[in-house]
Design goal:
It contains twelve helices and four strands; from the N terminus they run H-H-H-H-E-H-E-E-H-H-H-H-E-H-H-H. The chain has about 290 residues and is mostly helical.
Length: about 290
């Protein structure tokens, strides 16, 4: 029983990290039709900026609680800033040229990843966190690291916030309308470009936030941190449905649990099951679990 509880909670925490990365990716593609291959780099830079902040505030190598939460804020801001720069400086002139968008975001992602290696070296870095966060709590006989619970709570808050933003705020409505008919919304005197920049910045902020929490989850980071997890984020987006925030959450839970249980009982079944799920969704429901066929 304790093993089942541990694997379930750890799988849900992994799902929460995937959701934080995939939610922004799904939002950007679903509302803007931009396939952002630089998203993994935002995730990596969020993780490294969080690590750097903790290292500066707590140079002894033991992260304090104020340093950790400051690092979360810094990672979110860094992710949003990088996304804004990429959208305004590189993507805005290319909205009518989707192939060029893919190439530009791929190049931006590779460049940012290489900069990570140059600035912070390619060696793995231990991510310091407060003692209470790295300690464990006993749940039904299972000793579960506390950072798992914090990651799950953060993902739930993000999910609720994104749903409120899209359905209840003026900018959320503008973005949804602009995705359907950008020229019509622009004809009404609404600045769609500003709204789309906001969406891209929001996606980058979520990636940066996910990078910080992902670093706490794994305990260490390296320059390939974002690119490895971006693969699973794309799978989450496809299975959940393009542009569907709730679909991404559902798919992240399925993938996180399947990967955790599969890899525990065998060394290969977790990733194999995910590939099978992806193939089944593409064959039976190409629009994803909660998306529409595009």
């Amino acid at each position: 029983m304790s093993t089942f509880v541990l694997l379930t909670l750890t799988g849900l925490a992994l799902a929460a990290m995937y959701f934080l990365l995939a939610a922004g990716l799904s939002l950007i593609f679903g509302l803007m039709d931009v396939l952002n291959f630089a998203h993994g780099a935002f995730f990596t830079w969020g993780a490294y900026s969080a690590w750097w902040t903790i290292d500066q505030v707590s140079p002894a190598g033991t992260g304090s609680t104020p340093a950790f939460f400051l690092a979360i804020v810094v990672a979110t801001v860094v992710g949003a800033a990088l996304a804004t720069i990429v959208e305004v400086g590189l993507l805005r002139p290319l909205y009518a040229r989707p192939i060029f968008q893919v190439l530009v975001t791929l190049g931006a992602g590779l460049t940012l990843s290489q900069l990570t290696s140059v600035i912070w070296r390619p060696d793995a870095r231990v991510f310091a966190q407060p003692n209470w966060l790295s300690d464990t709590s006993t749940i039904l006989g299972a000793r579960v690291p506390n950072n798992r619970f914090l990651l799950i709570a953060a993902a739930l808050l993000v999910l609720a916030g994104m749903l409120l933003f899209l359905k209840k705020t003026r900018y959320g409505l503008i973005v949804r309308a602009g995705a359907e008919n950008r020229e019509m919304v622009r004809a009404l005197g609404i600045d769609v470009d500003r709204a789309f920049t906001l969406v891209f910045a929001l996606g980058g902020a979520l990636a940066g936030l996910g990078g910080a929490f992902g670093a706490a989850y794994f305990g260490s980071i390296d320059p390939s941190f974002g690119s490895v997890n971006l693969i699973f984020a794309f799978i989450v987006v496809v299975i959940g449905g393009l542009g569907s925030v709730t679909g991404s959450a559902l798919a992240a839970v399925v993938i996180g649990l399947a990967q955790q249980f599969g890899n525990y009982y065998t060394s290969w079944a977790g990733d194999f099951v995910i590939v099978l799920l992806l193939a089944a969704v593409l064959l039976l429901r190409p629009g994803g679990l909660m998306g529409s066929t595009r």
